Amino acid sequence: MIFNDLTGSSVAKIEHYLPVTMRTDTGWVIQIENDMQMSITAAGREQLNRESPELPGRLRKVVEESTVTAATMTDGVLELQFSSGIELVVEPDPEFESWNIVGPSRQRVICAPGGELVYFPGLD
């Protein structure tokens, strides 16, 4: 699933509480409750622990960067790609929710334990 309405949104704010929350300038909210991987073009991929005190600084690299795509795969993996070449990948957790996305019309997608995706339609 690709969130077409999320494409082109800029991350306006990152809150580093548990969960890590990214808010966009178009009203989307992305919450990450699991560890994630961040890759920077040609620099490889690094694991980011959601409880690490270094996480806010590392994630600030995506603030003010336009979201190119935000996609979920059927196995519950969330991939966020930014115009800067940064990509964030969040894997599903076998026992807990890994991430969720809420849109400006209150549409919601939750990655449930084990990677099952749960969809809630928005208000139209």
Structural descriptors:
globular; 124 residues; five-stranded antiparallel beta sheet; 1 helix
Strand content: 35-45%
Helix content: under 10%
Identify low-pLDDT runs: none
Provide the spatial order of strands within the biggest beta sheet. 1-2-3-9-10-11
Structural class: mainly beta
The helix/strand series, from N terminus to C terminus, equals EEEEEHEEEEEE
How far is the first residue's CA from the last residue's CA?
Answer: 20 Å
- Summarize model confidence as the mean pLDDT: 81
Could you give a short account of the major beta sheet?
Answer: 6 strands, antiparallel
Number of beta strands: 11
Question: Which term fits the overall shape?
Answer: globular
Count structural domains: 1
What radius of gyration results from the CA coordinates? 13 Å
Number of helices: 1
Pfam families: DUF6188
Protein name: DUF6188 family protein
InterPro entries: DUF6188
Structure in words:
The protein starts with 10 loop residues before the first strand and ends with a strand. It is mainly β. The chain is globular and about 40 Å long. It has one domain (11-120). It has a six-stranded antiparallel sheet. A five-stranded antiparallel sheet has the order 5-4-8-7-6, with no helix packed on it. 4% of the residues lie in helices and 42% in strands. The protein is built from one helix and eleven strands. The mean pLDDT is 81. The longest helix has 5 residues, at 55-59.
